[in-house]
Amino acid sequence: MVKDLSTREALEETVVTRAIIDGFWSDFSKRLDLDVAIAGAGPAGLTAARYLAQENYRVAVFERNLYVGGGMWGGGMLFPKIVIQERAKQILDGLGVKLEQYPGGYYTADSVETVSRCTTATIEAGAKIWIGISVEDVIIREGNRVTGVVINWGAVEAAHLHVDPLAVKSKLVIDATGHGAEVARVVSQKISEANFPTLTGKVIGESCMWSEAGEKEVVDRTCEIFPGLIVAGMAVATVFGSPRMGAIFGGMFLSGRRAADIASFILKSRFKGEE
């Protein structure tokens, strides 16, 4: 027989509900006007968020899944190890990730430790990470410039439900959605091909695996591809047709750092004097 709940027990259940709703609203309402909105909480997105938050910018990361870390969890073919190269070592050293040297100028790291330390450092820097929220569109205003993101629950998107989204204002947006380059794709579909910086005027799609070339290109080509929209991480490879890299992640961290530097420069120059 099911035990009847006492009035006190019933009230305690509503307290739990109210605590969650009040806490969510308090956090969310403070982040409706951002300096930088980042789509995707993989290595590039988390790194960009951390460096920008350390400069006291208002930063939020929107991740459609109920977890962060992108492809790092699976390492290579579900072996929970990732590889980075020498030039990315400083970033992971700064997080306290334990690295094991491997011949040829490479290092290996535990996937779970790397994701955990990246996430903790990003939050401690002051960035907010929202899981289960997808960036499905952008706002373009003010002389043909991205000025915010359109968001919805990831579960709504997965279920293909017709539910209208909400919007968040942001001076800049970083597409760190990985192989999908989803924000860049949306923008490329809605603007003139002449205004999109690829040979085709559209998102090209990544080419076959070539780790060395892909790692270099994903960093070198991290840039503002449309006013207000910066592309980082594997989204760079997809936009520009660069090679995919596999389970080597140094380029992702370096691209995230470069995206943060680009965003910081734009905020200081283009938005000079704005609070």
Describe this structure in words.
It is a single chain. With 275 residues, this protein is an alpha/beta fold. The chain has a domain at 33-70 and 127-270: FAD/NAD(P)-binding domain (3-Layer(bba) Sandwich), CATH 3.50.50. It is 40% helix and 23% strand. The protein has nine helices and eleven strands. It has helices at residues 7-29, 43-54, 89-95, 111-125, 154-158, 182-190, 211-220, 234-240, 250-270, and strands spanning 33-39, 59-63, 81-85, 100-102, 106-110, 128-131, 133-141, 145-153, 166-175, 223-226, 229-231. The strands form two sheets. Strands 1, 2, 6, 7, 8, 9, 10 and 11 form an eight-stranded mixed beta sheet that branches. The protein is globular, with a radius of gyration of 20 Å.
CATH superfamily annotation of the domain at 33-70 and 127-270 = FAD/NAD(P)-binding domain
Q: The CATH topology of the domain at 33-70 and 127-270 is what?
A: FAD/NAD(P)-binding domain
Termini separation (Å)? 61 Å
| Proportion in helices | 25-40%
Shape: globular
Structural class: alpha/beta
Radius of gyration: 20 Å
Outline of this structure?
The protein is of the alpha/beta class and 275 residues long. It has helices at residues 7-29, 43-54, 89-95, 111-125, 154-158, 182-190, 211-220, 234-240, 250-270; strands spanning 33-39, 59-63, 81-85, 100-102, 106-110, 128-131, 133-141, 145-153, 166-175, 223-226, 229-231. The chain has a domain at 33-70 and 127-270: FAD/NAD(P)-binding domain (3-Layer(bba) Sandwich).
Keyphrases for this structure?
275 residues, FAD/NAD(P)-binding domain, 9 helices, eight-stranded mixed β-sheet, alpha/beta, three-stranded antiparallel β-sheet
